[in-house]
Amino acid sequence: MAAIDIRAVDKSFQKLKVLHSVDLSIDKGEFIVLVGPSGCGKSTLLRMIAGLEEVTGGEIVIGGKRVNDLPPKERNLAMVFQSYALYPHMTVAGNMSYSLRLRKIAKEKIATAVAGAADILGLAPLVERRPRQLSGGQRQRVAMGRAIVREPQAFLWDEPLSNLDARLREQMRAEIKKLHRRLGATSIYVTHDQIEAMTLADRIVAMEAGTIQQIGSPEDLYERPANRFVAGFIGSPA
Ligand code: ADP
Ligand code: MG
């Protein structure tokens, strides 16, 4: 059974149709990267999976369950954005534990989860700091920590690194890769950065104007691009 199954999904905003019968079946533990030019519908697709945007047509099935009408809270997914939106008045630990505290999880359990995530992300010495006392990369890590502690069924990443400078982006890319190896969690990662796509993806989904052009391994897309659009994006000479 697929971890996430997207079946003939359409999306319109009033008269503007932005996604056209998208089909995508994602295995458990798979790292899927969605690529494509700005405005092609990547964020909209991710937001529909998260439940932040209504589905116009088709079905989204997560863990075997149709979720079209399920509110975001009940989907057990964690979304990581480029704007980390940390709570400025809370410490690192406070930010990471917030969603668990809302859910009235036992204190000891929360402490263990936060310590575990802080350890994975190299934040252990910083847990008492406030966001303003952190660098951009550290803040991004806290945002990831917040997602990890929830033990989601899947991580949804929407261009999480696009605000960072090149050096930090490279470092965080390695961090995300490590995290994925360690947690083995299903991920859908949106980027328009070709290097991120090539280094992180088990499979890349190339989108253009609300349709999927090709789905394949980084090697497939590089060596056997389905069309000029994919070739142009992935950077092979075809
Ligand atoms: P991407 O993330 O690939 O850059 P988006 O999913 O954000 O693209 O947007 C896809 C299309 O949908 C764009 O044409 C965008 O203008 C449009 N769109 C996105 N959100 C809305 C909205 N809330 N209302 C109307 N149009 C929207
Ligand atoms: Mg977007």
Features:
8 helices; 25% strand; 4-stranded antiparallel β-sheet; globular; binds magnesium ion; alpha/beta; binds adenosine-5'-diphosphate; 6-stranded mixed β-sheet; 238 residues
Outline the structure in words.
This protein is an alpha/beta fold. The protein contains eight helices and ten strands. The strands form two sheets. The chain has a six-stranded mixed beta sheet with strand order 6-7-8-3-9-10, sandwiched between helices. The chain has a four-stranded antiparallel beta sheet with strand order 2-1-4-5, covered by helices on one side. The radius of gyration is 18 Å and the shape is globular. 38% of the residues are buried. The mean pLDDT is 93. The structure holds adenosine-5'-diphosphate and magnesium ion. Adenosine-5'-diphosphate binds next to strand 2 and helix 1.
Summarize the helices and strands and which ones pair or pack.
Blueprint: E1 4-13, E2 16-26, E3 31-35, H1 42-50, E4 57-62, E5 65-66, E6 77-80, H2 92-102, H3 107-120, H4 136-148, E7 154-158, H5 166-183, E8 186-190, H6 194-200, E9 203-208, E10 211-216, H7 218-223, H8 228-234
Parallel strand pairs: 3-8, 3-9, 6-7, 7-8
Antiparallel strand pairs: 1-2, 1-4, 4-5, 9-10
Helix pairs in contact: 2-3, 2-4, 3-4
The protein binds adenosine-5'-diphosphate (ADP) and magnesium ion (MG).
